[in-house]
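Summary of Year 1 activities. Much of the first year was spent building the evaluation harness for sequence design. The harness presents a backbone, in tokenized form, and records the residue chosen at every position. We chose the following record to illustrate the format because it has been used consistently in internal testing since the harness was completed.
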């Protein structure tokens, strides 16, 4: 993928640290696998996935990790190889999932289109509730597309095999 993608992307950095405040209580912190610049000069988040199963094109439209990094880029700027709070963010050209271990004859990719300011604001508005919900002490188990390959499925109260443990 790296060799083929040079026609479309220029590397900005790898293992890029992200630390951007979304509001007074919410900060997006993480490390982007890759940050690239497309032919239009926009920044594109690239996340390498180790799994062989690629999400559907529809699912990638709302992929939360790519969405969060697009939000962080829209509110931050590059400073000495890091993405931090800033006043002069660069334009964002979307996000890309890359699946080097896919079963296909070529490396699989899934693109998330650039998010509008309205979409980013709506996503940001969800984060305080999510953060409050995750603070605990309890976390609600919900059935989702990852259930089929979840490593703790046998302990999960929403799965038949986990219900016997929690009864």
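For this record, the design step produced the sequence shown next.
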């Amino acid at each position: 993928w790296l060799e083929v993608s040079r026609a479309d992307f220029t590397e900005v950095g790898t293992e890029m640290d992200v630390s951007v405040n979304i509001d007074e209580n919410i900060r997006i912190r993480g490390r982007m696998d890759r940050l690239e610049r497309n032919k239009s000069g926009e920044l594109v988040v690239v996340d390498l996935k180790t799994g062989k199963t690629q999400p559907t094109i529809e699912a990638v439209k709302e992929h939360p990790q790519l969405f969060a990094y697009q939000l962080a880029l829209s509110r931050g700027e590059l400073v000495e190889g890091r993405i931090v709070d800033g006043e002069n963010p660069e334009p964002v050209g979307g996000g890309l999932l890359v699946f080097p271990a896919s079963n296909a004859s070529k490396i699989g990719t899934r693109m998330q289109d650039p998010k509008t300011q309205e979409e980013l604001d709506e996503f940001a508005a969800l984060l305080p509730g999510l953060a409050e919900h995750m603070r605990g002490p309890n976390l609600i188990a919900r059935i989702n597309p990852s259930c089929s390959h979840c490593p703790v499925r046998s302990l999960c109260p929403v799965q038949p095999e986990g219900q016997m443990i929690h009864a």
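The CA atoms of residues 71 and 120 lie 6 Å apart. Quantitative recovery figures across the full test set are reported in Table 2.
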